[in-house]
Amino acid sequence: MSDEAEDRTRAHVFVSGRVQGVFYRANTRDAARDRGVDGWVRNLDDGRVEAVFEGPRDAVEGMVEWCHTGRPSAVVEDVDAEYEEPEGERGFTIRR
Fold it and tell me: Could you tell me the pTM of the whole model?
């Protein structure tokens, strides 16, 4: 395994608060792409946003921290992140 592969991690994140209808997903996608993080983001029926971030450990941790504030018009109440083994995500998408 290469050093790069060993440094990759995956965070499965659930964000609650006023995070739907405020372009939170689009801003999450843009922030992830800026940091070179792979994965996806989507709205859940219960009003939360779910995201998966995969990439270099420091970049993924930066995305989890970003989720605590996100977009200025969002009101984030809680961020629940669980770290997992990477699954090989490529690119970053918004899921419907």
Answer: 0.93
